[in-house]
Amino acid sequence: MLGIYFSGTGNSRYAVETFLGQYDEAAKAFAIEDENIASHIKNNKEIILSYSVQFSNIPKMLKDFVDRYQQLWRGKKIFVIATMGLFSGDGAGILARRLHKYEAQIIGGLHLKMPDSIADEKALKRPMEKNVKLVKAAEKKITNAVLDMKNGRPPQEGIGLLYHLAGLFGQRLYFYHKTKQYTDKVKIDTRKCAACGKCAELCPMKNLTIQNNIAKAGNRCTMCYRCVNICPKQAITLLGKRVVEQGMIEKYL
How far is it, in rounded angstroms, from Cα 208 to Cα 156? Predict the structure, then answer.
């Protein structure tokens, strides 16, 4: 068994690692940007694929990843975990449908509400205690899903027509353009930037670089929010105008 994840602040990575730790301790999880990911997919029949939903949709980077390796999905048994800050409707289902198009066998889906990663929007922030409880609830839900999987009854959250309609009309229909292309909206406050290079090192798209002792952003941001949440000077924003609260998963464990 193999775990694959697309993760910005660590929610989806933590989810798949927690799942595998209870289901198959020998299994390992890898990020979609891992240089050997194609080989890992080829060598495993069963896959747990975990990702963070954006506007009830699949992040652009993950869409491209699935399409790039379309020949590798044929015949794979895939269970999809979708993590989200608010609501997705069919988070697991929308990725499942894309994989099924390439002849993957979808065995189920799981939705996990987790701390929100959008660090520059005050309206989305929750108290620390609430986020800790969210993670604990997600862990319990994972444990139950593992037991169901072992008993031959994998959860089917996000799979099916009703979930599809909820995701479409709940959010995706109105924000489809948000994830259709990569964005060039990353902003760097040059007065704050210390050119430490952490953002450039951790950006999964290599969209950030250090030039002339300052961070520079390109036009291929996939909105994972990793850079916004790890910048020690809070010099990076994307949707909002200032960083309200940073939160990698380790903060809530």
Answer: 38
Give the tokens for residue 23. 């289901």
Is residue 94 within 8 A of residue 80, CB to CB? The reply is no
10-50 pLDDT, tens digit each: 999 999 999 999 999 999 999 999 999 999 999 999 999 99
Q: Helix, strand, or coil here: 126?
A: coil
In this structure, what token pair is assigned to residue 250? 């380790």
Residues across the chain: 253
Cβ 138 vs Cβ 15: under 8 Å: yes
CB half-sphere exposure, 127, CA atoms < 13 A: 3
- What pTM was computed for the model? 0.95
Q: Which residues pair with 215 in a beta bridge?
A: 210
Cα 68 from Cα 48, distance rounded (Å): 18
Give SS3 for 163. helix
State both tokens at 128: 């620390």
Distance, in Å, from the CA atom of 113 to the CA atom of 84, rounded to the nearest integer, reads 5
- Three-state SS for 140? helix
**Can you say how many angstroms the Cα of residue 97 is from the centroid of all Cα atoms in its chain?**
17
pLDDT tens per residue, range 66-123: 999 999 999 999 999 999 988 788 999 999 999 999 999 999 999 999 999 999 999 8
